[in-house]
Write a structure and sequence with these properties.
Elements (H helix, E strand, L loop, with lengths): L2 E6 L5 E7 L7 E6 L7 H12 L2 E6 L15 H15 L7 H15 L3 E6 L1 H12 L3 E7 L7 H4 L8 E5 L7 H10 L4 E5 L15 H18 L2
Parallel strand pairs: 3-4, 3-5, 5-6, 7-8
Antiparallel strand pairs: 1-2, 2-4
């Protein structure tokens, strides 16, 4: 359904991105932010899914500044490689990879002529939360089990747009007490928890939990319909 395009960040860096277009007039636009596994088959499928739901979708390659063409699976060695690449990107001086997301937001707005939301998974969930607090041009943000979003540093941020956050009760990476702290600090954020593990949305992983993924998608689409209309 989609194709690869190129975004140009504020510093002139050219960032590849996967773009999926809806068949008719867009309901809105979505920036889809990868896990630590790159813009792989799953993330492309997610973008395709939002396009099928009527949203012009763009998934930027968030590892490009560290290593071009990253597309990992879900083995232990893949996870180790993804964690190492994440560390490189997180260590970049500000604005780092946020300028790549800003370029994706601007492109999605221009290309679709519509309001722009963002959805991200795991590390992408963290980047989505930061984007909701720091970027321009967003209208809504949906982090899924954002690793790091519930640390004191991230809790101290303040979103500029409506946020819907999905967490998992059995997530070994995000303690429930930290989710409770996030909720207490951000009553303006809609938080949902699911009886599932980290990564429950990804049907390429053993952690996939279809009922939770379906419910989270229903809630996300309703949220987007409200804020991107």
């Amino acid at each position: 359904m989609g194709q690869m395009i190129e975004l140009i960040a504020a510093d002139g860096t050219r960032i590849p991105a996967y773009e999926a277009r809806p068949s008719g007039q867009p309901k809105g636009a979505m920036v889809v932010v990868q896990e630590i596994f790159g813009v792989n088959a799953h993330i492309r499928e997610v973008a395709d899914g939002y396009a099928a739901a009527g949203y012009w979708s763009v998934a930027p390659a968030m590892f490009h500044r560290a290593k071009p063409g990253v597309e990992l699976g879900y083995t232990e060695s893949d996870m180790a490689a993804g964690m190492a690449l994440k560390a490189v990107i997180e260590a970049l001086p500000a604005p780092g990879s946020l300028q790549d997301l800003q370029a994706a937001v601007h492109h999605a707005a221009r290309a679709s002529g519509a309001k722009v939301g963002m959805v991200g998974y795991c590390w992408g969930g963290l980047l989505t939360w930061r984007s909701a607090c720091l970027l321009e041009g967003l209208q809504a943000a949906v982090p899924y089990y954002g690793g790091g979003t519930t640390t004191p540093e991230e809790i101290a941020r303040h979103p500029k747009v409506p946020v819907l956050a999905h967490y998992a009760d059995e997530d070994k990476w995000i303690p429930l007490e930290s989710v409770a702290a996030f909720q207490a600090a951000h009553p303006e954020v809609t938080v949902h928890r699911y009886a599932a593990h980290h990564g429950f949305n990804c049907d390429h992983r053993g952690a996939w939990h279809a009922p939770s993924a379906e419910l989270a998608r229903e809630r996300t689409l309703a949220f987007l319909a409200e804020h991107l209309a």
